[in-house]
Amino acid sequence: MHKYKLSLIVCTYMRPAPLSRLLKSVMSQTQVPDEILIIDGSLNDDTGSRFRESGNKNILYHKVPPEHRGLTKQRNYGIARVNDGMDIVAFLDDDTILNPDYFEQLIDTYTQFPQAIGVGGYITNEVSWEKIQQDNPVDLAHYYYDGYRRTESSRYKLRRKLGLAQTTQPAIYPEFGHGRSISFLPPSGKIYKVEQLMGGVSSFPLAVLKEHKFSEYFEGYGLYEDADFTLRLSMIGDLYVNTTAQLEHHHDAAGRPNKYAYGKMVVRNGWYVWRVRHAMPSFKNKLKWYQITILLTAIRFLNTFTTSERKEAFTESLGRIAGIVSIIFNTPRYRNDS
Questions:
Q1: Host H or E run for residue 299
Q2: Which of 44, 149, 150, 221 is deepest in the core (most CB within 10 A)?
Q3: Coil, strand or helix: which one is 319?
């Protein structure tokens, strides 16, 4: 049996403590990566001082110059520095913590599906799932899939009532965009064929990454850059999520943009990803994309009055409105190649 040589890239920005927790779980894996590249875009040296001289020859620390700062640029910077002898390159967010057999399960997926051009892991601590006997499609309070159910969010309840919800498998991108992500796949222990992976829990053959790059359209925080990259790959090969390759994601607020910028990104980057995957959607699907976008913006604005984070909700809704207007008067220029 071929033993895949594994490289790990962790792009980080101003998060030395979460990164330390991640690397502790990496070094206790049943299959430790053959090399670990830390690609640091921090504005200070707090991360560098911890990891520049780690004492572990497998850990390679790189402080990127300013022109390479930002998630997609840092990923491409890391890819260019992967040892040519590696087979698979894994990416992890710096605020994740791995189950002990995460990499073993991830690599086993390539053994089972040697044609795979991407394999993703499974986050266990963000959604609570319940195993059930049979689906109940008229139950709006829950989302059902493959023998499991989870609580349905208020926005999806409303979308279902209005006929604006996806009816196909999660992580298969509908022509109107706004699909359900891999977080809607249950912890069934199965491997699912998908069209999208989450970049912070993903892996790809090095040969694929040499040919296809992360788009630098997504500057800075890079919201939806992973959707863009993996949707492009899904048009040329097979992607999988292995729900036994498990980890936890502990969202760290450090390094995130302000809510206005985030809201604008949600709309503009969402539009960009949609049109990269579906360059010529029908009028019906165009209308549906805008209907959902406006609906989600309205829901976020109403959060100003229904949640304790009133300022954040109001600011983000303003950003979303600005994003909608900007698409009309300053349409993003998109490409559906690498």
A1: helix 283-306
A2: 149
A3: helix
Single-letter code of the amino acid located at 295: L
Q: Are 142 and 151 in contact (CB under 8 A)?
A: yes
3-class secondary structure, 181: coil
In this prediction, residue 1 carries a pLDDT of: 47
Name the packing angle between helices 283-306 and 259-277 (round to 10°): 160
Give me the pLDDT at residue 122, please.
98
Decide: pTM greater than 0.85. yes
Task: Give me 59's structure tokens.
Answer: 């850990």
- Could you give the maximum distance between any two Cα atoms of the chain, in Å? 59
3-class state of residue 89 by DSSP: strand
DSSP reduced 3-state for 245: strand
- How many CA atoms does the CB half-sphere of 272 hold within 13 Å? 27
Query: Model confidence over 242-297: pLDDT tens digits?
Result: 999 999 999 766 656 789 999 999 999 999 999 999 999 999 999 999 999 999 99
Strand 6-12 and strand 148-151: the pairing is unpaired
Reduced to 3 states (helix: H, G, I; strand: E, B; else coil), residue 253 is: coil
Give the residue-averaged pLDDT of 80-95.
97
Which helix (H) or strand (E) covers residue 156, if one does? helix 154-161
How many Å apart are CA 216 and CA 204, to the nearest integer? 18
CA distance 322 to 293: 12
Pairwise CA distance, residues 180 & 197, whole Å: 12
d(CA 325, CA 107): 44
How confident is the model over 24-58, as pLDDT tens digits?
Answer: 999 999 999 999 999 999 999 999 988 877 667 78
